[in-house]
C-alpha cells in the first residue's frame, strides 16, 4: 500500500528485490492502492517490477483485492459478477501477469448474492486468471456463509481471511478466528502495529511527530498502557515492533502478518527480528495483562 504514495517506485523495486533475497515471497496489494498517485498506481509499480524479468513473477505468491470504487461509474466497484470479472482483467493488465495467485474480496458486499459472487470467481478460476479466493474484513458468519455456499456449488471457497488484528484490536478472536479454524482458512493480519502505536511511539519522538491528530488523541488515551508495553519490551531487550509481530506469530491461527515496510531499513529491522523471538509463557502472560483480549471465543466470552 505504501508503494507510490509513501515510497518511490525505485525504492519499491529495491524493497521487493531484497524481500526475495530474504526468502519473503508473499506480496499483497489491492487495486485501490495508490493514494495521491491515483487508484491502481501500486499495482502498476509491481507490474513494472515483474516486467524486469529475472523470474520475479514466478518467485512471488501474488495477492490483490477488489471491492472499492475505481471510478465514479456505478458498476466500477463492489462484488457484482460484472465488476469481479472486469476488475480482475484490469488488475492483470496493471500487474503485467496472466494470473493472480490469491484474489481477495476487500470487504463484504451485502447486496451481492453468494451464488453470483462464486459464479464469477469460478469463471476466473476456469480461465486460469486466478488460483485461490480470499476475503478481507469479513465477520465470522460471512466466512461461514461464503464457504457453505461455495461447498454447495462444489467450489473450494475462501482459503484466507485478511483481518485487522493486533494487540490493541483483538475482536477477531471472538468469532472470526474460530470460523477460520473450522473452515481451514488462513489468517493474514493487517495493521499488526496498529498504525505504529505498538512500534515504540512513546520512546521515539520522530515517530510520534508523524502521527495524525486522531492518532495523537489515541496515544494520550492509552498512554499508561503503551508505557507498560514499552517498558516490558525494554526489559526483554527488544524493539516493541518486533515483539508485537512476534506475538502475532505466536497465535496459532495466524499464517503471516502483513508488514508493509516503507524502507529497506524497516524490512531489515523489527520485521526480520520478529522471526527469531520466542515469547515465554510468563512474557505472554504479561502481554495479556497489558492488552487483554475479549475473554475467549464466542459465545463463551460473553455468556455464562
From TrEMBL:
One of its GO terms (molecular function) is oxidoreductase activity. One of its GO terms (cellular component) is cytosol. Keywords: Oxidoreductase. Residues 6-290 form the NADP-dependent oxidoreductase domain. The keyword Oxidoreductase applies. Pfam families: Aldo_ket_red. This is Unannotated protein. The lineage of its organism: unclassified sequences, metagenomes, ecological metagenomes.
